């Protein structure tokens, strides 16, 4: 299956959870793995999961009680990372060799390749892929293959965390379940369904003639309209996350444009484009740029530089922390500006600080 086909499947699975097993199988093939699983962690709530046939029993055992004894999530919070990594290189042996590891090795697996993706509302989406012991470690190319798909998994995981891994029944319930401003658009760009929270950002996301949408910021709106136009063109590049700067009393937002493909369109009553917004909190004292960096399709090198900048380092300091030349850092920064729609370092840092879901409106 090609990358484009896998990407389509990933976004379909975000709205049609039964499709995750097909997606996980395709990702396993792309990484030279025999099996894969996706788990969603929400604090102390029961873990939700999807898995391929081989590892479904192990994933199920993790959701029942194994996750409470595992130290992997605690280790991630202490030592966060971006992209896909080998478990044997990231986790200390005393953390890695838990009950799930024992079960996996008993089945003949050894090398595990995975990622942990933090979500704006606090959940963690975990993707892990298992390789037969006789085949040795995952190859570097396997990591590259999955890292190309990482931004799409971040976006789809974001949707899955908000909707859960159970099938959404209607467009209205799906949009309300997000708890964030969202609208479903038809192929002509006309609004087909919205949730109540869209009214709370009506000074930033504006209705237009013929039932369309626009952004109040002119530069952001150009990116937004270009994305919608590409979405309507056959084979156009649809997925994009667009930063909208704060102005007057309106908070900064990130507007996400996401595809609805295949059976997801049936669930959303024929809609083809989903537009959703998350708030940006520039006053956050603890930077958590990893959420937005995945959404903006930054390369691993750009991610490291942006993370250092978000921690308050100067560009020179960030270059040193990333072990790159200052000239290289400037080149990376220009690329980051283009991808995030920003043009100043301070603006970029504010954007990367944190992303939070907007509060639900009071009342019925």
SSE arrangement, N to C: HHEEHHEHHHEEHHEEEEHEEHEHHHHHE
According to CATH, the fold-level topology of the largest domain is Beta-Lactamase
Into which percent range does the helicity of residues fall? 40-55%
CATH architecture annotation of the largest domain: 2-Layer Sandwich
**CATH superfamily descriptor of the largest domain:** Transcription factor LuxR-like, autoinducer-binding domain
Domain count: 3
Q: Flag low-confidence runs.
A: 167-173, 283-289, 354-364
- Intertermini distance: 46 Å
Rg for CA atoms: 20 Å
Number of helices: 16
CATH class term of the largest domain: Alpha Beta
Structural class of the helix and strand makeup? alpha+beta
Please summarize the sheet with the most strands.
Answer: 6 strands, antiparallel
